[in-house]
Amino acid sequence: MRSTHEFTAVLWIPMGAFHVLLLLLDGSVRSPIRPLDLVIPFKVGYGTLAIGLGTVSLDLVAVVAVTGWLRKRIHPVAWRWIHRLSYLAVALLFLHALLGGSDFSAPQVSAIAWSAAAILAILSGARIAWGRLRPDP
Question: pTM to 2 decimals?
Fold first, then answer.
């Protein structure tokens, strides 16, 4: 299970970085996105809420990723609470896509996004209700 968890992090971080790079290079937007807009939320001149939520999500993912790599140097309780920010990051990322995603109106994209959100919500609720699954002895 841990290898799946680590694989998804290795998969999503480059995809997010590619998304951000494309935004920086996109000349067709009303107000260009500057590198500082990637770390300071709610500063872009258009789609302020949607893009700001994406920025906060990106910041949270960066904190979770960096502390994940530094896990052995951080107190376990502090690391666990910081790592739980990933739940908030995913929720904000979904809202970012819902409010600002131009492809979200396509039925295929919407179905995939809502299904993924539902599955993550169910799994998160189960984790909150019953805790971590214990490995078989």
Answer: 0.82
